[in-house]
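re: ur question from earlier - yeah i can do the single chain one, its not a big deal. heres the input i used so u can compare w yours
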Amino acid sequence: MTSIRQAVIFAGGRGVRLRPLTDTIPKPMAPVNGSPFLDYLIDSLIRVDIKKVLFLVGYKSEAIIKRYKDSLGGMVQFEYSIGLTEDNTGRRLLNAYNLLEDHFILLYGDNYWPIQLDPMVSLYKKTEAAVLTTVFSNKDGAGEYGWENNVEVGNDSYVKRYDKTRKSFGLNGIDIGYFLVSKKALNPSLKENLSFESDILPEFIVRKQLVAYVTDIQYYFITTLESLRKFEAFVRKNKVEHIALNNT
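and the output i got, formated as tokens:
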């Protein structure tokens, strides 16, 4: 079975909806009950035996680099690809091309979901898709935009449409990231400031190379102060673990 050993995390955007908190720190470092959000995300990766983490940083990158400067006693190896604040997600990913493993899990630095890596990898291998995305079924309207969805998944698990405007008919889930990606499917020769979601993923949909792992398990996001507080409450109630670091 295809092995996933590397996580790649988008962690470089401005995070304007989380201001004024993000005036002084990058969004993935937002405090959750006293520890940065990334501490929880990294712990969830370690629990599915991922040993390498590559941060795609930009805005206030020094805060992330300073905190994750060691290897947690050998448990995980950290690397960084440093870009500009204005770089879009596709540009950040392609800039890091030489640091990518053949297959990797790609995450947003502001979403948390209990990773179900084995069934994700099983579907990824079975379909031989270039990219797998994780889609929240949103049956109870508990997504980031309430009942509004942004993905249409067919009965065969392939993504038929991705719509960031959330206005198309037939949308039946929310893309929450947690992508599995084949490096060879990416084109490092592209030079534009591309969006992974708006510019790169649609090409895979056209070629029927984007498959969806659909989950009913609730995900959490820290895009606003309100959603950050909800994640804090979830962490307290469920005693969600985070990595323990001595450095600040």
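The two ends are 38 Å apart (CA to CA). not sure if urs matches, ping me
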